[in-house]
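Subject: acylphosphatase structure
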Amino acid sequence: MSVFKKLRDEYVIWHAHRIELPTFVSSTLLRKKVTFSGRVQKVGFRLEIHCIAQRMNLTGWVKNLEDGSVEAEIQGEESKIDFLVKCMQSLKRASVKKVTMIDLPINEDEETFTIVR
């Protein structure tokens, strides 16, 4: 791992843990496929999603797509998913131009949030 990537990853983890999480009102459990387009690769985007999702006890996965976008399947309470998406749209080191969300069936067996490489 390059020195730059190591420093970036440390910064991303630090930043993700500084985000103040609101008190979430209990809401419907659901699963969404979310695609973020824009300048979202090589800026720690997947790691940031991963860290925030874990803090909020969301499950699912996130991965880079060949077209330069980032795709995630996120499962949890609707209010938490909405908060995570808004956090990612507001990142200064990325530039989210478009977000698409599709409802998916719940995956009952899923227990963690992972980064797919």
